[in-house]
Amino acid sequence: MASITREIQIESSAERAWEVLGDFGTGPSRMAPGFVVDTRVETDCRVVTFADGTFVRERRVSVDHDSRRIVYTVIGGSVEPSHDNAAMQVIADGARRCRLVWTRDVLPDELAGPMAAVMTQAMTMIKRTLDDLGRQR
After folding, report:
1. Grouped pLDDT means (10 residues each) for the chain, 137 residues
2. Domain with 34 in it: what CATH number?
3. pLDDT digits (tens, 9 = 90+) for 29-41
4. Which of 65, 125, 105, 114 is CA-nearest to residue 89?
5. Considering only CA atoms, which of 111, 50, 48, 119 is closest in space to residue 82?
């Protein structure tokens, strides 16, 4: 199983960043507008639609507000790996700065390259959005 990790520093408090990331229902659309064009909730799942037309159905595994960590798994959509589990965690790094760590475990291993590229692209959008949010306060 391939494991991919991306980490960025965000110029926003951990609490403010978590307000966006910890919201399972709207987080993807709020953190990466333009990259993600729609997020809709269906019971314990969400359907996330991307600008290129691909979509995924993700099941919430856990949302831990104390550790600011969200875990989800892809269970369907237009791209369907045999296994795709992800965790995103916001870690405080001072009063007005934090880090975002995003880890995905995927099968088959051949998906690691394309998924890593998409994660890198998404993290650029997420950083810009959350940095802007940090400047608003």
Report:
1. 96 96 95 95 94 95 97 89 92 96 94 93 95 84
2. 3.30.530.20
3. 999 999 999 999 9
4. 65
5. 111
The reported pLDDT for the residue numbered 137 is 59
Cis peptide before 81 (omega within 30 of 0): no
pTM over 0.85: yes
Angle formed at CA 36 by CA 91 and CA 117, multiple of 5 degrees: 70
Q: Is the dihedral of CA 55, 122, 135, 68 positive or negative?
A: positive
**What phi and psi values does residue 94 have, to the nearest 5 degrees?**
100, 180
Residue 133: partners with Cβ closer than 8 Å, 6 or more residues away: 12, 16, 17, 20
Q: Give pLDDT, residue 85.
A: 95
Could you list the beta-strand ranges (E) of the chain. 2-10, 36-42, 45-50, 55-64, 69-77, 83-92, 98-107
Quote the domain boundaries for residue 7.
Answer: 2-135
**The total number of structural domains that make up the chain:** 1
CA distance 12 to 7: 15
